[in-house]
């Protein structure tokens, strides 16, 4: 499990994070039902220093090859990869071309808060700088980032990102002001970012809601990471519910349009029953009327998706693929092969949807 945490990211920046090649396959007519496989995978493709992931993906890296084998074994059409260091488009393109056989003609990535220095003493160690004083915990800007890969066109001009949304601007938040003191009002909520990435699936728009909230651990009695995890998940829940207090990185206010089709993806670092989460954290999404929970599982591990240290925290369900109620769930699973080494402490989770 990784340790994680003015409103102007322009559409031009977001466009730089997307490729725009045309698909090679012939698409069905817009009125034909389309079955697609949507997946999330915290692949642990993070590295200790900036630029190392690009270097590794430029050659033959054993872990990246093992990650690619997992992805290939599951034939995903739309995929969110968590813990993929941000370096512009370089690593995204290298992984697709060198490891995924170029099967994803579309992708989206963007800057995240991890490793971005705040200039404040957020970890209360009496010094400025270092991973604990970044807007999201990280050794360098972009560590533990994320990327969306797609076999269908990404509607670049309609992407929304919430990297800069301030925690104080969430009504009735759990922001621990007593701990942070005078710097509390400067804190960004998202430890990485929250994205709405619309994808055109044969003429119908599917909103991919991507995020990776901080683990609710590695703090003290103030439970600052637990409370942040809770409110990061709440941001997604409120976005799905169309909350008007939200504003994105271009200053556009409001949440998801009423009735829009979506699938929420990502390592939420919150189990419905076990672990260190604030009570009810992931339930904020699971209990929404518009959210379906297919509860993907594996034969030996049930709905757990992460293989953490035993006995604490142990195996947990923290990775989710949650479609909107207007989509038909055909099948779902957690890819958890038995008796084999795995490139990450998380497992790939997929859901087949009829769009």
UniProtKB/TrEMBL annotation:
Example GO molecular function: endonuclease activity
Magnesium recorded as keyword: no
Keyword match Signal: yes
Keywords, in A-Z order: Endonuclease, Hydrolase, Nuclease, Signal
Signal peptide: 1-25
PROSITE patterns: PROKAR_LIPOPROTEIN
Residues covered by region (Disordered): 291-314
Gene3D superfamilies the record matches: Endonuclease/exonuclease/phosphatase
Designated name of the protein: Endonuclease/exonuclease/phosphatase family protein
Endonuclease/exonuclease/phosphatase domain boundaries: 40-346
